[in-house]
Amino acid sequence: MSKFFTACAIALLLGPATARASVVADDNFSSYAPASTLGGQGGWTDTSTTTHATILGAGGVAGSVGLSSADNSIYWTSHPWNWATLSVGDVVVLSADFQASSGATSFDDDRIGWGDDTTRTSSFQFGVQIDTADGGLNRYFRDMSGTGVTTNLIPSATIGTIVPNDWYHMEMDVTKLTSALGANGAQLVVKFSHLDITGNIIGSPVTATVNVDTSLYRALNSTVDPIYKDFNTQSGGFDNAHFSIASVPEPSSLVLGSVGALLLIGFCSRRQRQTV
After folding, report:
1. Quick check: 256 pLDDT over 50?
2. Which positions ≥6 away from 33 have C-beta within 8 Å?
3. Could you say which of 29, 90, 128, 155 has the lowest number of CB atoms within 10 Å?
4. Which residues pair with 195 in a beta bridge?
5. Distances in Å between the alpha carbon of 258 and those of 114, 262, 265?
6. N-terminal to C-terminal alpha carbon distance within the chain
7. What's the pLDDT band for 262 if we cut at 50, 70, 90?
8. Can you tell me the distance from the alpha carbon of 154 to that of 61, in angstroms, rounded to the nearest whole number?
9. CA geometry: angle at 13 spanning 9 and 17, to 5°?
10. Burial (CB count within 10 angstroms: exposed 0-12, middle 13-18, buried 19+), residue 61
11. Are the C-beta atoms of 27 and 249 separated by less than 8 Å?
């Protein structure tokens, strides 16, 4: 195969660049000094009042650096975003690892989601939380009047017995289905997994999928930050915060990319025939 044909093949495999970039952010807390408080570092804001999220030298998954529990949510304020600016089909993903307490077979109010960038209170949050005493893995949000609402998504019986000291992975994927706020405006997929001692998923995650009415939620009407809560009513650790927005290509990019690919195929074929 000629060098020219190889170059053409590589260009086709790489494909055209899309006009809209995705957002990906991960933090395993290993870049911070042990025993330091997380707030004010790495773009994080800690809204706790008494017990703050603190870096633990061996408090993470598989003995890695991790984070202690706290009395309120931590906000990843270096990654603000707004639901209104997303395109239909865009997917927002948040996930984190939570450790069950020593001697406890339960979780209490441990949460992932997003919250208003200005007020930074639970009155303007949307997410999911694991609370075994409250039924299992629940959707958590405040409606337009400020009333807290929790809806069970995965029952405690489906999750199974929580193993003390073990780590669990929680994830929420939210896909924008309509440009206007309203019924079936988004799809919410939640996943909950048990991790082994190396941090790998044991078996398959337990999952649930629901469509949601986006007009109900306060936290979809303003600029928001990713939020995480490892509530200190129990002592388990926290690790591996993840936030991403997977953007679908603009329709114009897809059309131009398709036309460009067809032209490139024709050009490469003709050039290859001429060099044989």
Report:
1. no
2. 55
3. 155
4. 201
5. 36, 6, 11
6. 10
7. very low
8. 24
9. 125
10. buried
11. no
- Counting other chains too, the contacts that 210-213 makes at CB distance below 8 Å and 24 or more residues apart are 210/139, 210/153, 211/177, 211/184, 211/186, 211/187, 212/139, 212/184, 212/185, 212/186, 212/187, 212/188, 213/182, 213/183, 213/184, 213/185
pLDDT at site 20 = 52
| Residues in Cβ contact with 36 at an 8 Å cutoff, skipping those fewer than 6 apart | 54, 55
CA–CA dist 170, 181 (Å, integer): 26
Alpha-carbon separation of residue 198 from 50, 64, 168, 226, 273 (angstroms): 32, 10, 12, 26, 54
> Can you give the pLDDT at residue 201?
98
pTM of the full predicted structure? 0.84
Both tokens of residue 62? 């598989």
3-state helix, strand, coil in the chain (%, to 5): 20, 40, 40
- What CA–CA distance (Å, rounded) separates 129 from 140? 7
pLDDT (tens digit per residue) in 62-107: 999 999 999 999 999 999 999 999 999 999 999 999 999 998 899 9
Split at pLDDT 50, 70, 90, the class of 219 is confident
Local confidence band at 255 (pLDDT 50, 70, 90 cut-offs)? very low
**8 A C-beta contact, residue 65 and residue 59:** yes
